[in-house]
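Chain X:
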Amino acid sequence: MWAEGPEDRLAVPASAPDPVAALTRALAGRDRITVTTADGPALDQPEPLRTAPAGTVVGPVPYGRSHLLGVVRERRPADPADPRTLAAGRAGLAEYLAGLRAKADVEWHWL
């Protein structure tokens, strides 16, 4: 779960004992924030949340044109049969191989 908006509007929920409840209350008010909940791979999360462990509150940190406050509620291992997991694996391998190709130095010797 994460919220985007002005830093001053996210500072109060960030310091609350239960940031998730504070974000829900802020959403119910007329604060200028956008709250998003997501259940999916880390790559689908905003960059500041991708590597944060479960239970971590991140932010407010600059993000795009505003600020981000996020709470990582849980982490689960990837399901190897999930098409998104397979696509992420293929994309990661393609990126890795592209990096190897970019660094490769090939010399041809003709006889």
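Chain Y:
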Amino acid sequence: MAMTINQITIENFGGIAHLAVSLDEHIHLMETSYVEEMIVILTRLLSVEPQLPVSASWIRDGTRINANVYLSDKQYTVNIDTNEKKSEMTLKAFDSDGNDKTSEYCLNLMHCIEEDDLTVFSGCDPEITERLYHYMDEETFYPQKSLSKLTDGCSNTNSFRLWLRRYIKDTPQEIPNDEMQYRLLCHLKALEFWDGFEDIRNLHYVRKPFIVKDYGEHSEDQNTLFDRAKDTGRQVIVLLPVNKEREKAGRKYERRQVSRTPQA
């Protein structure tokens, strides 16, 4: 089941005074000076665990965040309520008739921590490039059965081990142009592995949008990799910092008819 964020409206959150944006269902480039605020909002909408911390100064009187979200063909209006005193953000979801569907929405988006960790790719954060091979050598890389905890026990099952060996065997080796491409490629392979595993065991598995940030000067020549991310059946949201390099990258993507949000 594909998940798509169709529209987001933000008022008075962090450095964002007002932003209303419609997102492309396939690949969306969002140019913004407030990447970290957008990451917090997007991951809350996707119910990613563990939740990212929120700066106390970001929430104030008049903060308002809502979005239109589709899970397959079912539409939800999702509000993120805030508590200025406690710096808390609480998600609530409603169907098209206004009925409270928060529990249903969150249940559909419930993934293990390891899967949710793959929702965001950051060009600045350390990346486990050989994640799948680490799964194969669990005793070395995941002591004290930590992988089992991260995967809610999935890694202990025969189906997980069989699919892991099959995926590694059947996936051809690829030679990227540089280290950043290599990191993104490894991340996408891990995402593809989990999608394949969930297809085996969960008919109602939700493919959350894939978020890319801090990709900087690399984004203008990553058409193939971003298209590969889109081919996983996920909406791809690329957060671009505002600078001249981004403008050039944006113009190149606009020629490919990819949706792009003006500066926020």
